[in-house]
Every structure is written in structure tokens, then in C-alpha cells.
Amino acid sequence: MQRARMSFALLALAASVVACHVILGIGDEDFRYIAPESQDAAGEDVPARCPVGHVPPEPPTGADLGKNLPSLVFALSHVDFLAKTDGGTIAGYDLDGKCTCDARDTSSNAARRTCVPPDAADEPCDEDGGVDNALARALRQFTTVAEAFGVDLSDPVDIACGRQTVLVILRNYNGQANDPDVFLSLIPSYGIFQRSDAELDGGGAIPDAGCRSFDAGPFPARFDGTDKWSHLPSHVDEFDVPIIRIAGYVRDFQLSLNRRDLLAPETVVPLSLGSRIFTVATPTVTARIVPLDEHGADLRVLDDGGVVSPGSDTPRSAHGFRLTDGIMAGRMRTSDLLAGLGSLRLSRDRDDYLCSHAFYAQIKDVLCSSVDTTSRPDLDFMGHACDAVSLGVRFEATRALLGQAYEPPEDATDAGCESFQDDCMRRAAGPTR
């Protein structure tokens, strides 16, 4: 059987806030909805969250002085839904303040279910540190089921071939180890349509490893800081300044978007899968900033936050940066995720979409059995049905340039199931189109 290829990558993490003045991030002591019963029988205060829950670092206590750099543009160069941390645990963060199945959880919600799973199933256990990432567990089941249907869930060429990525724009950054006040913008890109200056100056094009590029693009990515990724015009003003700028901070070269009010259900970030864009609630984004020299090589960071060349102890300044060990975590509503999956093209050479493939029913069963959270954190621990899955995605991002404005025409996207809708309540009736 000839294997069909289905693109299943994080193609865009387009930063957006639905309501004005909503901040993206993750809290600390007010991270979680606190039930009224916040004291034990003896009247002692009970911690609001799991004491061993894995959360991003706190903001820096002091700031390094320094003039803010011009805007820094990065492009996602690698995305992995199944990656693990250096410690061997599934990537992600504690999204609900509870370490399910962990005896060390002494928080006020330790004995409560975050939500009611389907068919009264047992509440799924978290990863170590209370990490919530049900999607990773579901994807591992997808891989097994997909093989039986001849479907390959990986298509690593989209980013490498310059077809689609997400631009990460960092503003107000001083370029040093600590900065309590930076702004991040995440902008979807649908391809590289301008040849890089290095190529035009005789640097040569990179080999086209099956990218099927055309004279007008998209062109394969070089990942050397010269790629001119396009951007959606609706996300940038006439001065090429991102419209949405999200407050964050840097501590010990660790970038964090870390100040959100979890009780605000409109705190979301859109995620695109195929041609669909849907929201991820309670988003958390972190990444390690790596300083680079003038040749693009990594510099060494000292314990005091200073930067030196490898083999040298002489302090110096960075000429650029890249992002590594990135994690994006949050909650995805199952109805949105099913719609996005259904719109995926199974083959780039045929109009064959997942919504009409027998494999879709298997995917739906796996997803609907994996729900572990609510799409709105203000509904946690209140007896509501689970209607979302948690996720944690690892990513890398290289230096890039902001290219021309470009919005793909409707007939260039996976539009075979543009009106496809489904949810886990339609087990028997099936999806609608």
C-alpha cells in the first residue's frame, strides 16, 4: 500500500488576545482557581496549587542595565509534539495546579477532579511534576493506528521548504541575561517568497530536497538569519510593527510569557493546523535565549550572566540570538481540534482529506478518550465535563528577517473540508459538513 503523507506540525502560533489588556503568561501563587474550602479542619491554610508542580521561572529580582536592542525576529525551525525534556519527562507545564495521582500533592484541589472525563472514566494521571500533556499521549496512539491505515503523521518538509512557520518577534529586550520587561509577538507566515541576500550575492541556494520549489517561491529555508519569511498583513501595521505585543520577561536568558489571569477564559492564543486556526487557552510559552557571535556561532554564558567566546574569559557582546528548548503549553477544545484534523490533506498530490477518510473515526475515538481538562480554567474543579485536551510542544527558532506581507489565496489551502465540524458528543451521528 502506498503511504499517504499528512502534515501534522505546529504550523503557526499566532499571538492574539481577544479582549483588551489581557496578558499572556502564567501566574504563581494565584495560578489556580481556589475553591472556597481553602483551609483544613484545623483552620490552617491549604496551598492553592501542587507544591511540586512544574511551572516557568519567576521574573528576575533585578534587571541588567542596557539599551534596548532593535526588534529581534526568529522563525520556528523545528516543532515536536512528542518531545521530552532533558530530564526525560514529556514537555509541558502544570496547567491546573494539580499533580494528579501524585501523593506529594497537598493542595486544596488534590482530591478534586479537574473535570469529569467521558463515560465516568478514571482521571488520567499527570506526568511528573503535574505536567499536563494529554495530546502527546494521544499522538502516540495515533501513530500506531495510522500505520494500519497507511497514513504517515509526519511531514517535516513544510518548514524546511519555506512553506509555513511562525515568526517570533522580541521587542524591548536589552540583550542581557535579565530583563523584566520585554514584549513578544507571534505571527504566522505562509512562506518565503523573497530570495535571501546571501543567495542573491552569490551565496548559492540550498539543495532542494524534494521541496518542489517554483521560480516565485516559496523558497527553501537557509536557517542562517537571511530567510525573509512573509507575514500575514493583519498582524503588522504600516511600520512593520506587530499589532499584538505580549508582556513577558527574561531571567538568566530564559524567556517567559508568565503573567496571565487564569480566570479570564478569553486569554487564548490561536494555533493553525492545516487550513484551520483555533484557539489554545491558558497558553504558556518559554524558551532559552542563546547569544551568538558575528559568525552565528554560540557564545558561552558565565554564571554571572556575562557572555564570552568559547575558550575565552574576556567579556563581549552578542551579535545575535537564537531560541532553543522552547515549550508552548495550553488547552485545546476538542471540537476545534477535530475540525482542524479533518481539514488536513492526506496527500499533496490529490484532493484527499482526512474528514472523508476511514482513519478519521479512529482519530476521533482516541481524542475523545483523551480529554483531561476544561477549555476554560474558571470551570476547573466545579464538576464540569472535560471538553479539551492539554498539550505541551517543544520548538526551536532561528534568526530570520521580516519579509513581505502575504496572505495565501483560499484555493491554496487545505479547503476540502472547509465547513467540517465535529465534537465528541456526536459519537453515533457522525460529523457534519
Tell me what you see in this structure.
This protein has helices at 134-149, 157-160, 197-203, 334-342, 359-368, and strands spanning 4-5, 12-13, 72-80, 151-152, 165-171, 179-189, 192-194, 228-231, 246-251, 254-257, 268-273, 276-292, 300-301, 307-308, 320-333, 388-399, 401-405. The protein is α+β, with helices and mostly antiparallel strands. A hairpin with a 7-residue loop joins strand 5 and strand 6 (179-189). Residues 1-37 have low confidence and may be disordered.
Q: Kindly give the count of domains.
A: 1
Structural class: alpha+beta
Summarize the amount of helix as a percent range. 10-25%
Strand fraction: 15-25%
Question: What low-confidence regions span 5 or more consecutive residues with pLDDT below 50?
Answer: 1-37
Distance between the termini: 29 Å
Summarize the structure in short.
The protein is α+β, with helices and mostly antiparallel strands.
Topology of this protein?
Elements: E1 4-5, E2 12-13, E3 72-80, H1 134-149, E4 151-152, H2 157-160, E5 165-171, E6 179-189, E7 192-194, H3 197-203, E8 228-231, E9 246-251, E10 254-257, E11 268-273, E12 276-292, E13 300-301, E14 307-308, E15 320-333, H4 334-342, H5 359-368, E16 388-399, E17 401-405
Parallel strand pairs: 1-4, 8-17
Antiparallel strand pairs: 2-11, 3-5, 3-16, 5-6, 6-9, 7-8, 9-10, 10-12, 11-12, 12-15, 13-14, 15-16
Label this structure with key terms.
3-stranded mixed β-sheet, alpha+beta, 17 strands, 433 residues, disordered N terminus, 5 helices, globular, 8-stranded antiparallel β-barrel
